TrEMBL record:
Stretches that traverse the bilayer: none
Name listed for the protein in its UniProt record: Uncharacterized protein
Organism superkingdom: Eukaryota
Classification via InterPro entries: NAD(P)-bd_dom_sf, SDR_enzymes, SDR_fam
SUPFAM superfamilies: NAD(P)-binding Rossmann-fold domains
PANTHER family named in the record: SHORT CHAIN DEHYDROGENASE, SHORT-CHAIN DEHYDROGENASE/REDUCTASE SDR
Native source organism of the sequence: Tetraparma gracilis
Length: 276
């Protein structure tokens, strides 16, 4: 039987079905081959903590050359001894992103746009909790941020033909899934920012085709980070993983980005597509 095109919208049901079926692709990382990354130059934004730090750690273990782009470093990132560490990269800052051109020494094989932000309180209309300023901040960081960074890399000739760009967006950007995942609405800024990130990524994929650069649009799965701590009570029900596991899932999908798959929106938990 061929595998379905799309992953399942209902996350608790998705995780329960994986457990019932003993789905090794979702429950293990046995399929992950770090040798694919050995010697590759990989740039990661937000590499100082969370999924970005886990990606940095796994890349280092795999023998990749890590180019870490951060607002400020962390002890854990410093301890990895990145090949290059560029600080001051606030992805909302046009000038800071432009400065990447002078600060990254050579083209990269992969650019991972990972940095993101999710305002903590729930936002709703009916209880008066919308926060428009925070909504603009999420859109700026999650949608414009990766565009600024990708633009800077392209113009600095740091993305040569054959390079890959991984956009870490989220299943939260799927409009089609809102009826299942947000049956009573809410969290406007987060979902708008990730839907905008998906649109941006789809357009970047189209534009970059003619430059030989492929683009993956990746939901990293549910990871136990500071960002999702507010959902701690559902971590075990919905299959949240340690970011060390999430990083392997993401890097496996990074390895599958090519000119055939460019522009696809993929769930790194199972490698299947997510509908827009
Ligand atoms: N965790 C999940 O389950 C999950 C699910 C779906 C998608 N994602 C996406 O995965 C990515 C990483 O998430 P995470 O869980 O690792 O989040 P996190 O633990 O909150 O880490 C966020 C990272 O983004 C950086 N960042 C935030 N604002 C920035 C800015 N203006 N400029 C540059 N860097 C900035 C942070 O750096 P500072 O230390 O400087 O703040 C930090 O490195 C995000 O894009 C997120 O939306 C995560």
């Amino acid at each position: 039987m061929s595998s379905p095109r799309y992953t399942q919208a209902d996350q608790p049901a998705r995780f329960a079905a994986a457990k019932t079926a003993g789905n090794a692709r979702m429950l293990t990382t046995d399929y992950y081959d770090p040798s694919l990354l050995a010697g590759k130059r990989v740039a990661v934004t937000g590499a100082n903590r969370g999924i970005g730090l886990a990606l940095a750690t796994e890349l280092t273990a795999a023998g990749a050359k890590l180019v870490a782009l951060v607002r400020q470093s962390s002890a854990a990132l410093d301890a990895l001894g990145p090949s290059e560490l560029v600080t001051g990269v606030d992805v909302t800052d046009d000038a800071a992103c432009s400065s990447i051109a002078a600060l990254v020494s050579a083209p990269v094989d992969v650019l991972v746009n990972n940095a993101g932000y999710f305002y903590e309180p729930v936002e709703r209309i009916d209880d008066g909790s919308l926060n428009f300023k925070e909504e603009m901040k999420m859109i700026d960081i999650c949608a414009l941020g990766p565009l600024r960074v990708t633009n800077a890399f392209f113009h600095a000739k740091l993305l040569q033909p054959g390079a890959r760009v991984a956009m870490i967006t989220s299943q939260g950007g799927s409009i089609g899934w809102r009826t299942v995942q947000n049956p009573t609405g809410g969290d406007y800024g987060h979902h708008m920012s990730k839907a905008a990130a998906n649109m941006m990524s789809a357009l970047v994929a189209q534009e970059m085709r003619q430059h030989g650069v492929s683009v993956g649009i990746l939901h990293p799965g549910f990871n136990k980070t500071e960002m999702t701590k507010k959902y701690e009570e559902i971590w075990e029900v919905e299959g949240a993983v340690d970011p060390a596991v999430g990083a392997k899932r993401v890097l496996h999908e990074v390895g599958r980005i090519d000119m055939e798959s460019t522009g696809k929106f993929i769930n790194c938990e199972d490698g299947l597509e997510i509908p827009w």
